[in-house]
Amino acid sequence: MNNVLTIAMPKGRIFEEAAELLRKAGYKLPPEFDDSRKLIIDVAEENLRFILAKPMDVATYVEHGVADVGIAGKDVLLEEERDVYELLDLKISYCYLAVAGLPDTKMNDVAPRVATKYPNVAEAYFREQGEQVEIIKLNGSIELAPIIGLSDRIVDIVSTGRTLKENGLVEYEKIVDITSRLVVNPVSYRIKDAQIDDLVARLHEVVGG
Ligand SMILES: Nc1ncnc2c1ncn2[C@@H]1O[C@H](COP(=O)(O)OP(=O)(O)OP(=O)(O)O)[C@@H](O)[C@H]1O
Ligand SMILES: O=P(O)(O)OC[C@H]1O[C@H](OP(=O)(O)OP(=O)(O)O)[C@H](O)[C@@H]1O
């Protein structure tokens, strides 16, 4: 009898695509999986336990070993640098991180300010560019910052580009492409290697490449 494998799933926009991927990989997930307020869902027939976490927290649960594996956006993994192994690019929830701002503007020479939900990624990016900037951490609606004069630039996720466009902003540079990844706790990977290898093989089959 195998141990139960605990999977941290991100609530929100990644959830639906991730659930679809698991189903395509042959896992039988009950209807309550898609429409429930429960934060822990046991699927006994598959020997799986799902915990439903905020996307930014998935790698934290996996790092601490309370989840064996998790599904997390590459943006979160770059920002948090958690002690987890990245096993597979799931190629879902594509978007990218970019620098944006008001059109035809230069960054302030003296103390340029950058607003973002991703302070570590932004800091590293501007350091690589040789620019010293003040990072202003926000938790959402990042596009507001340059419009109301809080910052010269933002670093944020772009998907369709609609939010930038509707707020009169333009993209200056793309930083990095983002998709969701399967991550694993290093100790879990040693103890539950057969179950995790099976999960990876089944997802790899669906994802391809
Ligand atoms: N257009 C997009 N905007 C934001 N995240 C996206 C987008 N497209 C794909 N993603 C992926 O989805 C993840 C965020 O999902 P979601 O927006 O549900 O989380 P959140 O912003 O933390 O949620 P909340 O709005 O509840 O704070 C990101 O980490 C990223 O990998
Ligand atoms: O290019 P688009 O398709 O317009 O998508 C990008 C927008 O979506 C995200 O915001 P979200 O909806 O998560 O809200 P938030 O501002 O609260 O983070 C992101 O922060 C951008 O604002």
UniProtKB/TrEMBL annotation:
Its EC number(s): 2.4.2.17
GO MF entries: ATP binding; ATP phosphoribosyltransferase activity
GO biological process, one term: L-histidine biosynthetic process
GO cellular component: cytoplasm
EC category: transferase
PROSITE patterns to which the protein is assigned, alphabetical: ATP_P_PHORIBOSYLTR
Domain ATP phosphoribosyltransferase catalytic residue range list: 54-204
Record's catalysed reaction(s): 1-(5-phospho-beta-D-ribosyl)-ATP + diphosphate = 5-phospho-alpha-D-ribose 1-diphosphate + ATP
Pfam families found in the cross-reference section: HisG
Pathway(s) annotated for this protein in UniProt: Amino-acid biosynthesis; L-histidine biosynthesis; L-histidine from 5-phospho-alpha-D-ribose 1-diphosphate: step 1/9
Places the protein is found: Cytoplasm
Function recorded in the entry: Catalyzes the condensation of ATP and 5-phosphoribose 1-diphosphate to form N'-(5'-phosphoribosyl)-ATP (PR-ATP). Has a crucial role in the pathway because the rate of histidine biosynthesis seems to be controlled primarily by regulation of HisG enzymatic activity.
Family the entry assigns: Belongs to the ATP phosphoribosyltransferase family. Short subfamily.
Subunit description: Heteromultimer composed of HisG and HisZ subunits.
Domain notes: Lacks the C-terminal regulatory region which is replaced by HisZ.
Name of the protein this chain belongs to: ATP phosphoribosyltransferase
Name of the gene: hisG
